[in-house]
Amino acid sequence: MSRKALTSTDHIYAILDFARIHPTFEKSHFTVLKLIDEKDLKDLSHKEILLLKKTYQYTQKIIKINKVLVTISQKDPNEITIIEKDILDYCYRKEVIPPVIENYRLAEKMLENYMSNLPPDMKINIHQNILATDNDLEKKQKVKDKKMKDHKKFFIGATFLSFFNLYGIDDDPLEILFEMVKLHLMHDYFGKDLLSHAEINEFNISDIGREFNNKKNSILINPNNPFQIYNE
User: Fold this and answer.
1) How far apart are CA 57 and CA 55, in angstroms?
2) What are the CA-CA distances from residue 121 to residues 83, 110, 118, 145, 207 (Å)?
3) Is 5 exposed, middle or buried (0-12, 13-18, 19+ CB in 10 A)?
4) How far is CA 125 from CA 114, 132, 194, in A?
5) Distance between CA 31 and CA 60 in Å, rounded?
6) What is the 8-class DSSP label of residue 6?
7) pLDDT digits (tens, 9 = 90+) for 118-141
8) 119 backbone φψ class: left, alpha, beta (φ>0; ψ -120 to 50)
9) Could you state, in order of their start, the residue ranges of all structural domains in the chain?
10) Percent of the chain clearing pLDDT 70 (strictly above)
11) What is the Rg, in whole angstroms, of the alpha carbon atoms belonging to the chain?
């Protein structure tokens, strides 16, 4: 007896059921859920119907993966294999079983290899290659972090010196930096302003105060500002 093909309606119901049980799915597949919410089935294009089918297949894969994860996690620690231990380490990170593990791409690859019908030796080789990929990703992340750190250092230095150019200051920038840090530490130590609120307000509305604020705002919205980029 042949198996009845699922309709797009079946796919939609299954996707919505999955989304209700797995909260993170809403963020990772917002476009699909929005499509289901805003369009009637009769208005869906062929491409959109294929997207629903692909999303349904993804949810079924995650359900299968989570079942395997539960099975592995319930095994006797003395009987667990090296591959199974790595899978748990990459999936859990000392957390509960993730509802959706697209943020654990390497773990997903490990699981797909683990669930395959390949010979054990081949599974081990593939697993080792996946771990090697993780090492490469870690190295790339370290390089990326260093570039960001260097970018911040350069941006702070350039920003600091740009104020000297704006006001025509010829004093030693390093000595001024020391004084600025000292004033900040003193303010933090005593927990009070060095100037009265009236004096601060007077400065803010003065020509030099407005000029300073304009300069500050232009720096904050500078597209090359790594602090702004980092926070996005």
Assistant:
1) 5
2) 12, 14, 8, 37, 75
3) exposed
4) 11, 11, 66
5) 18
6) P
7) 999 999 999 999 888 877 777 777
8) beta
9) 8-116, 146-231
10) 90
11) 28
pLDDT of 113 reads 92
Which one-letter DSSP state was computed for residue 193? -
Residue-wise pLDDT for 166-189, tens only, equals 888 888 888 888 888 887 787 777
Inter-residue contact 164 to 123 (CB < 8 Å): no
Q: CA 217 to CA 232: how far, in whole Å? A: 18
Q: Which of 66, 124, 55 is nearest to 99 (CA)?
A: 66
Q: What Å distances lie between residue 187 and 14, 173, 184, 199, CA to CA?
A: 59, 21, 5, 16
> Quick count: other Cβ atoms within 10 Å of Cβ 151?
16
Q: What is the pLDDT of residue 181?
A: 83
Closest by CA position to 105, among listed 144, 83, 134 = 134
Q: Which residues have CB under 8 Å from 21's CB, separation 6+?
A: 99
Read off the tokens for 230.
Answer: 């980092």
Residue 96 has pLDDT above 60, yes or no: no
- Dihedral sign computed on CA atoms, order 125, 129, 132, 134: negative
Band (93; pLDDT cuts 50, 70, 90): very low
Terminal CA-to-CA distance of the chain, rounded, Å? Answer: 54
